[in-house]
Specification:
Distance between the termini: 44 Å
Number of helices: 13
Largest sheet: 7 strands, mixed
Number of strands: 12
Shape: globular
Bound molecules: nicotinamide-adenine-dinucleotide
Helix content: 40-55%
Radius of gyration: 20 Å
Length: 362
């Protein structure tokens, strides 16, 4: 088992990473001082696969367990679902010290985190992420939220978990598309923070894709460590945490233009490549580095071309991105593998030119 400590003063916590950790959850929770009762929030797929193992681990450590189920899908990240959960929690809660365990992907993590942050003005949160994206990214850093109308993730809080348990064996049941989605985030960490990690992914991608335990543990561990370091520097997202948005300016535009038919990881992959091309156009990033990125994205099973959407719509959507200021777009641009910078000075005409040229090539 590997461990990453997220150092945030009195809100510090550990991320435990390794195979078979789910069945040790009860013991781990006792070690950090919990006893008595707890609540699990999960979705039907994850409940069927892992609900019993978790329940058994907890009851054999003496916990009384309430399991609450939420249907699958992004639309469940809503105030309505949170309201239903508050209602279901009422009879069970006698103490604010009773923790909520989020067992699932990013949807369950964000929703349960929001409920934990707000119910009784805050009850302890434990994250047990079950998708690669959730293990590498969404379970770490304390951003919890629900959507409201068109406002995605806009109703929320910074609320750190007390413990994150990433059991890598759980990833074996993930559909291939969801694995690629998570890989996009691992590649992102390599580009924004750690060139050696990028090389590790290049060299071990086949093992990672075939879920070799050592390789998967390594990428979850190194990604978690990078995310923890970024969050430690800027817990409340006032500056440096923005580098985590690498690939997201164009990525978000692609998601919205495609009515969210293009998956998040796919959109981010295209966005990362677009930002690398812009950086190359500005003579900042070497062409060879753009090609390295393109190769690794393709090998991860992610797209390297703008999908057959009308380019005009994409450019229009980008212009509505909240990061746009007077014809200039905010971008996180790579200088090399492992180093990026944030700029508000990229001209939308340059972006358009890069996208048009790229579209013509493909
Ligand atoms: N809080 C943050 O910092 C942060 C960061 C990135 C993304 N997010 C959020 O994360 C969400 C996306 O999360 P996601 O990609 O994990 O998707 P998800 O939570 O929707 O899960 C995808 C599907 O995979 C299934 N699943 C989960 N684990 C499984 C397993 N081990 N085996 C088989 N099936 C499994 C789920 O039932 C679900 O149907 C979005 O809402 C996004 O906004 C949050």
């Amino acid at each position: 088992m590997k461990k990453v400590r997220v150092r945030l003063g009195s809100n510090s916590y550990d991320i435990l990473i390794g195979p078979g950790l789910l069945m040790r959850t009860g013991v781990k929770l006792k070690e950090i001082g919990f006893s008595d009762k707890l609540v699990i929030i999960t979705d039907p797929t994850v409940k069927n696969l892992y609900g019993n193992t978790l329940k058994q681990s907890l009851t054999s450590s003496g916990f009384e367990v309430l399991l609450l189920e939420v249907p699958e899908g992004e639309e469940q990240k809503s105030l309505e679902t949170a309201g239903r959960l508050y209602h279901e929690l009422t009879d069970f809660y006698t103490e604010r010290t009773t923790p909520i365990i989020a067992l699932g992907g990013g949807v369950i993590g964000d929703l349960s985190g929001f409920v934990a942050a707000t119910y009784l003005r805050g009850v302890p949160l434990i994250q047990i992420p079950t998708t690669l994206l959730a293990q590498l990214d969404s379970s770490i850093g304390g951003k919890v939220a629900v959507n409201h109308g068109l406002l995605k993730n806009k109703i929320g809080a910074f609320y750190q978990p007390r413990l994150v348990i990433s059991d890598i064996t759980i990833l074996e049941t993930l559909p291939a598309g969801d694995l690629s989605d998570g890989l996009a985030e691992a590649i992102k960490y390599g580009v924004i923070w750690d060139g050696e990690f990028f090389t590790y992914i290049e060299e071990n991608l086949d093992q990672i894709k075939s879920l070799d335990a050592r390789a998967v543990e390594t990428i979850v561990f190194r990604s978690a460590k990078i995310k923890a370091e970024v969050v430690e520097k800027d817990e409340r997202d006032f500056g440096q945490r923005n580098i985590l948005n690498y690939g997201h300016t164009i990525g978000h535009a692609i998601e919205s233009v495609s009515d969210f038919k293009v998956q998040h990881g796919e959109a981010v992959a295209i966005g990362m490549l677009a930002a690398a091309r812009i950086s190359n156009k500005l003579d900042i990033l070497d062409e060879n580095e753009v090609n390295r990125l393109k190769k690794v994205i393709a090998r991860a099973g992610l797209p390297t071309q703008i999908p057959t959407l009308q380019l005009e719509r994409l450019i229009q959507a980008m212009k509505h991105d909240k990061k746009i200021l007077q014809g200039k777009i905010r971008f996180v641009l790579p200088k090399s593998m492992g180093e990026v910078f944030i700029t508000d000075e990229v001209n939308s005409s340059l972006v358009e030119q890069v996208l048009v040229e790229w579209n013509e090539q493909t």
